[in-house]
Amino acid sequence: MKALVYHGPGKKAWEEKPRPKIQDDTDAIVRVVKTTICGTDLHIMKGDVPTVEDGRTLGHEGIGIIDEAGKAVKNFKKGDHVLISCITSCWRCDSCKKGMYSHCEYGGWVLGNKIDGTQAEYVRIPFADTSLYHAPKGVNEDALVMLSDIFPTGFECGVLNGQVKPGDTVAIVGAGPIGLAALLTAKFYSPSEIIVIDIDEQRLKAAKKLGATQTIKSGNGKAVDKVMELTDNRGVDVAIEAVGMPATFEICESIVAPGGHIANIGVFGEPVDLHLEKLWSQNITITTRLVDTVTTPMLLKSVEAGTLHPEQLITHHFRLNDIVKAYDTFSRAKEEKALKVVLENR
């Protein structure tokens, strides 16, 4: 089979690899129908995720068809249409019993990280019964593939950790796919204001279209002043960091109101200054999280009911064998006006 293979920082190739085989009775082999590229994949390509080794097939998102199921798999059979979760969970270990699937002792974020992932024609899914979801019939496949990662991530790490409440003023720093997923799911809780901050005019236009009440172009050093102006110098109740850069985290530190929440989503590859000299007395809560995907069933129901439309974030479609071109497009998001790219293997 063909797969997108990582060969160290800045090096990748679409190349031949052995088709995956059942290794444990709880495994399933899935023929990938659609997958996508995550911002985390770009961090991997920069060398920010040292657990990813040379030779790894990248990717942790996708939908597909069960090609083979291990003898212990009870919930799925050959031919089933499935959504692949970015998090592998055994449901038996102490972390899983706490609902902290991202820290499963036997799984967690392993696809495209510690084991071969979904940017391939076939992928092996460990603990298939608890790491796959049946795809609802008739639901847009493009919407479904967005539920592998970015929507549960934006919702859990940003909105739920930020404890967004009705009437809150929310700022989202970063209008990439994760930030926009946080925007759409923050609307579940009816905040009074959603301010989106980014350096890209096109992404800010997308944020406005999706429901941002205010947008601010950053990069000129005045984003904090503009937020304070919009909030009568009070700041925001919830500041969601959705980029993974020291400068964007510092914006969150500067705009959060007393008693507020800073909810970090971004993947950081370098240290960040924590300004406790300013925050220590302000009753600020700072949260971090790797997505647990505990909300995936609820998000699936929202998509099935037509109340959530994740496919709105998709800007480009490619054939799976054009994945190197898709990476180039996604990595030059500003020039290409790209949000999410979908790769199809038919």
Features:
24% strand, 346 residues, Quinone Oxidoreductase, Chain A, domain 1, Rossmann fold, 13 helices, seven-stranded mixed beta sheet, alpha/beta
| CATH fold-level name of the largest domain | Quinone Oxidoreductase, Chain A, domain 1
Rounded to the nearest angstrom, the radius of gyration is 20 Å
The termini sit apart by 14 Å
Q: Class of the largest domain in CATH?
A: Alpha Beta
Q: What is the tally of beta strands?
A: 15
Number of self-contained structural domains? 2
The CATH superfamily of the largest domain is known as Medium-chain alcohol dehydrogenases, catalytic domain
Number of helices: 13
Q: Give the biggest sheet.
A: 7 strands, mixed
Q: Looking at the chains present, what oligomeric state does this protein adopt?
A: single chain
Could you tell me the mean pLDDT?
97
SS strand fraction: 15-25%
Helix content: 25-40%
What structural class should be given to the helix and strand makeup? Answer: alpha/beta
Give the overall form. globular
Short description:
The protein starts with a strand and ends with a strand.
Explain this structure.
This protein starts with a strand and ends with a strand. The chain is built from 13 helices and 15 strands. Helix 5 packs across helix 6 (177-186). The protein is globular, with a radius of gyration of 20 Å. By secondary structure, it is α/β, with parallel strands linked by helices. The chain has 2 domains: 2-149 and 292-344, Quinone Oxidoreductase, Chain A, domain 1 (Alpha-Beta Complex); 152-287, Rossmann fold (3-Layer(aba) Sandwich), CATH 3.40.50. The model has no long low-confidence stretch (mean pLDDT 97). Strand 11 (236-241), helix 9 and strand 12 (256-264) form a beta-alpha-beta unit.
